[in-house]
Predict the structure.
Amino acid sequence: MRPSYRTMTVALLLLVTITQVIPVGEITFGFMSVGAMAAESKRGDIEYAKVGDRSLKLDLYLPQRDATARRSPLVVWVHGGAWRSGSKENVPLLRWLDHGFAIASVEYRLSPEAKFPAQVHDIKAAIRFLRARSNELGLDPERFVIAGGSAGGHLAALVGVSSGIDPLEGTTGEQIDTASDASSQAPSYVSAIVSFYGASDLQTILQQSTEYGLSVRVPALQLFLGGQPSELPAVAKLASPVTHVDPTDPPLWLIHGDADPQMPVQQSRQLADLYRQTGLPVDFEVIPGGRHGGEAFFAAERLDRIAKGLLEAIAKPQTPR
């Protein structure tokens, strides 16, 4: 007998209700199951920390994966916006879901709200939050990558090379260390860094900048640091990734345009040179005629190549400090 329209509607509603409450595969988050052949999905506005009454949130994108596969590597994405604007909604790396990466796009306090190092503290808190919950989220805690663009590229590089440096770790969030010996590793470490046209040395950036670049960078630094690098040399030094590079740092990818009017390409060149001098793996790509961002930086071929390199690099055991 052919079921009535009402019967079919009731059955469909019952099926939807069951899928919301019964786990499929490994875990269930309300409407979203991560398990056997889970579809690509997004879980938005996850609170990872609070600063006073201020809620800090992230969006988590999960790739399609088989329940028998390894847990997903994670890319923590840091948006740009001169440290004073921008949104976690802008994620140009979603193509990496096709390579098996999960992606967490992180909100952080912007410079009109809080000065440096609040931004670094927030991002590290997000990493700790995700690592502490890696089992339930289906993430591999030993294969975390940090990536960002522009100011986000600077913050990604700074977070990546500053694991275990107390002034940059901060006390934001839960500070959960999942290691058996909490003193043996810092919980905010990552296994690779990707910086798209980001800064690396706030002590030299103004001397390298064009007139237009100065018009952007001077007010941005005033808000971010609370003054100019010449006025706050110790703060500018602490905020510079080049200050913290040592032989324990993870592999690095740098992508920068040689016609960038805002962020001098010399910034990436400095960091790449220092990595090479330290004997660390670095892939520095200069895009001829590339300006500050745009589709060329996130072209499919380029993203696919970087993703392949990242997967190869993070497959090797890392030794966090």
